[in-house]
Design brief:
The chain is α/β, with parallel strands linked by helices.
């Protein structure tokens, strides 16, 4: 089986949608930190949602995924007090592979950072 979407799959799916009624379309290209990074699917921007539970070293281990992102949502930050996760080290590692990439600290559990994420998205969508 496939570990990611490709442009043809997305095009087929788009044919089923009322595109005139859609302002923003999110395409979740799931898989792992390797496969989806290599394939463009017609996106205008690429956002990576990264859970801090994955550790600080992942930008260095999987640089292509982090390098291809326009924004990294650093998620689950509500867990920082409970984990051995060095946020500053993660951000240094992120800057090592994608200097100055936009990043927003978020928590789906608390809603922290969601307004900032929506503003970022709205600005890029031209809404």
């Amino acid at each position: 089986g496939e570990c990611h979407l490709d442009a043809n799959m997305v095009r087929s799916g788009l044919a089923e949608l009322p595109l005139g009624d859609i302002d923003v379309l999110v395409i979740e290209n799931v898989g792992n930190l390797v496969c989806p990074a290599e394939f463009k699917v017609g996106e205008d921007v690429r956002v990576m949602v990264y859970a801090i539970t994955e550790g600080e070293e992942k930008p260095l281990k999987y640089p292509l995924m982090f390098r291809s992102a326009d924004l990294v949502l650093v998620n689950k930050v509500d867990l920082l007090p409970h984990l051995h996760f060095d946020l500053e080290k993660f951000l240094r590692n992120l800057d090592a592979v994608n200097p100055g990439v936009d990043r927003i600290l978020t928590s789906a559990a608390t809603g922290s950072g969601v307004d900032e994420w929506c503003s970022w998205l709205t600005e890029r969508a031209g809404a």
